[in-house]
Specification:
Helix content is 47%, strand content 18%. By secondary structure, the chain is an alpha+beta fold.
């Protein structure tokens, strides 16, 4: 009997996170060091700019999420997904 090599969604999340971060870092480095590649460091912000705060006098809770992505971080996310599918 063959052994199934099943990797869950947690593995996909970790893989896409690593490749997305690596792509973002590479985009920042290339955008800062090469003048003609300035567009690689331009980031797009997705999310809530002002967090939602709830003060219940006993506990204060703040909710907020913000994604800053550039072109190479999106390429890294896609590459991570493709590598996951190939496994």
């Amino acid at each position: 009997m063959g052994r199934q090599n099943y990797r869950g969604y947690g593995y996909l999340f970790i893989l896409m996170l690593i490749f997305g971060l690596a792509g973002g870092i590479i985009g920042e480095i290339l955008g800062n060091s090469v003048n003609t590649l300035y567009f690689l460091k331009r980031d797009f912000v997705l999310g809530i700019s002002k967090p939602l705060s709830v003060d219940l006098k006993l506990i204060a809770i703040t909710f907020g999420i913000l994604f800053k992505v550039n072109i190479l971080s999106v390429v890294g996310l896609i590459l991570g997904f493709i590598i996951y599918k190939k496994m």
